[in-house]
Amino acid sequence: IRQLRRYANQRDEVEAEEGVEPLFWTNQVVVATTGQEARLGSFTSGPEHFLEWKDTAPVDRADVASDLGKEVAALTSQELLTAGVLRPSHLLDLVRHFSLLMPAGPRRVKVVPRYQQYRAVHRALDRLRTGDSRIVDGHVDRRGGVIWHTQGSGKSLTMVFLVRAMRSDPDLRRFKVVVVTDRTDLQIQLGATAELSGETVKVARSSRELRTHLSPRGPGLVMAMIQKYRADLASGVGAGSSGDGGDLRLAGGDDDQGDRLDDLNTDEAILVLVDEAHRSQGSILHANLLAALPNAARIGFTGTPIIMGARQKTHAIFGPFLDTYTLRQSERDGSTVPIMYEGRTTDAAVQGASNLDEVFLPLVRRSDRRAAPRPAAALRHRGRRARSTRADRRQGARPHPPLRVDGDAGRVQGPRRGQQPSGLRPLPRGSRPGPRRAGGRAGGVARVAPRRARR
To answer: What is d(CA 374, CA 376) in angstroms, rounded to the nearest whole number?
Structure first.
């Protein structure tokens, strides 16, 4: 791998020009081999992107082993890659439909498929060609299914590869492809990836635009969130809204009410690709999708299908599994880093656990007493002390005696009725303390200590 990257002048750790990069501008795939091991990549791939090709699909592995006179388990990594990639029909197919140039920061990189993507696309194509439509079957459409590929395995690129392969097939090139998701960020991501197919992507941002894009027959590539398949398609209510306000809520909630949609397009040449097929596809919105496109084939993509529990199974909605690529397979291939979790338990005991109630209850009672509300009079005069003016202090007057709060009786104790503190003048009847004068002198006389507060 280091030698190939040196020839293509792709080693970032080397500043000098050490290769002849123009020789690789027309290169389609790069194979690195050593001994009996082989890995596939492109001339822009980093060392971590060179991975083994572990399947011979669409040719059966047993047929390859029979041609080589070996057992299936004895096939080496080189033999699997040679039979799966370098077979002439496979190589031409891979170059035409599975090689892309996509932006990656300030540069463009060449993308080649992984074996599970190549296998899943061919299995989907075979199902679309041989499966019965709803009209032929008389009950359900049997041209779809579920592609169970774990997270990070490139499901969005698999959709692009499938669309490109369909456009070269005489029987499938007439299909209208509808991509459905349930979140704005996924739609943006899929929309950017779908442009690599070379087709014009029509994004339905409202229910009215969705009707406009889906109603005509013929090929096309349409993207719409599942929330756009509301009953207002049939009634026209709110059809002009942008629909951006409801895309943050996953479909299938209690607010998804309304009548089923009328037949929007009854053509059989429609393929619906549903991303994250385990979510929101058992709701009334998905029923609206079926009512709008009753004869369409459907393929669901998911990394976590629902295969048990009370909820409707994913394969019961879309059909049998087309291809499976689990998390364990991804870890063995080296494309997913395993996360190890070690659960630990600690043995602990509380000394005197039988006496916890006896210790706890007094603490609760004490906190309840502290939190009990105080009498209004006590709260009014809490922390208040009598004060004298600056003029009184200059004359040697003593401040008012502090007020004492009798919490048990709810009374405030101060000077007795009619008793004036020594050195303080009473406030004239009907007058109030004046404002503070310039220079900081008090404009009024000292206040008289309050009388004994009533309950």
So the answer is: 6
Overall size of the chain counted in residues: 455
Q: Bridge-partner residues for 405, per DSSP? A: 412
In tens, the pLDDT along 375-421 reads: 555 555 544 444 545 555 555 555 555 544 444 444 444 545 555 44
Cα–Cα distance, 125 to 98 (Å, whole number): 14
* Cα–Cα distance measured from residue 327 to residue 337, given in angstroms and rounded to the nearest whole number: 10
DSSP 244-302: TTSTTSPSSSTT---PPPP-S---S-EEEEEESTTSSTTSHHHHHHHHHSTT-EEEEEE
**Sorting pLDDT into bands at 50, 70 and 90, what band is 246?**
very low
Radius of gyration over every alpha carbon of the chain, rounded to an integer in angstroms: 39
Query: Do 113 and 94 touch, CB atoms closer than 8 A?
Result: yes
Q: Which residue has the higher pLDDT, 398 or 206?
A: 206
Q: Using pLDDT thresholds of 50, 70 and 90, give the confidence band for residue 258.
A: very low
Residue-by-residue DSSP string for 288-321:
HHHHHSTT-EEEEEESS---SSSSPPHHHHH-SE
d(CA 114, CA 33): 17
Q: How far is CA 104 from the centre of its chain?
A: 22
Indicate if the alpha-carbon torsion angle 364, 370, 371, 373 is positive or negative. Answer: positive
Residue 341: what pLDDT? 78
Integer Cα distance of 140 and 107 in angstroms? 46
Residue 445 contacts residue 433 (beta carbons within 8 Å): yes
Mean pLDDT estimate for the chain: 78
| 147/345 Cα distance (integer angstroms) | 39
Mean pLDDT of 417-437: 51
User: What is the C-alpha to C-alpha distance for residues 437 and 267, in angstroms, rounded to an integer?
Assistant: 92
Residue with tokens 């406009």: 212
